[in-house]
Write a structure and sequence with these properties.
mainly alpha, about 110 residues
């Protein structure tokens, strides 16, 4: 898979599901690790991880769209903010794409 995370064991390798769950948890707020349902139920974790990442991407896009009119920044810091938001948006979009690949592989593996 072209969007498979480079830092994650390939799907199908020994122990890959445990590592995939940990990888998905790393994309969520750290408090999620305290909930047993996210550690033991890949479907629940998959649902909330995708939901969380989708909303992070949308929040960055909203911030980018409104920065010129609501941030009250002078031109130089505004340019820096927009560059940071653009970079973070691209990073999060890639992370969402990778998470979707991991989620798909978990679902496929659990349906067999």
């Amino acid at each position: 898979m072209s969007s498979w995370p480079s830092d994650l064991t390939p799907a199908g390798a020994t122990g890959w599901q445990v590592k995939a769950i940990s990888w998905l948890l790393d994309r969520c707020p750290s408090e999620f690790r305290t909930y047993e349902v996210f550690r033991t139920q890949p479907a629940a974790l998959s649902y909330v991880t995708q939901f969380h990442l989708e909303h992070q991407v949308e929040a960055i896009r909203d911030a980018y769209r409104s920065a010129r009119t609501t941030s009250n920044l002078k031109p130089e810091p505004l340019d820096e903010l927009l560059a940071a938001l653009e970079h973070e948006g691209a990073r999060l979009a890639l992370e969402l794409e990778q998470a979707r690949c991991v989620i798909h592989a978990l679902q496929r593996d659990n349906s067999q």
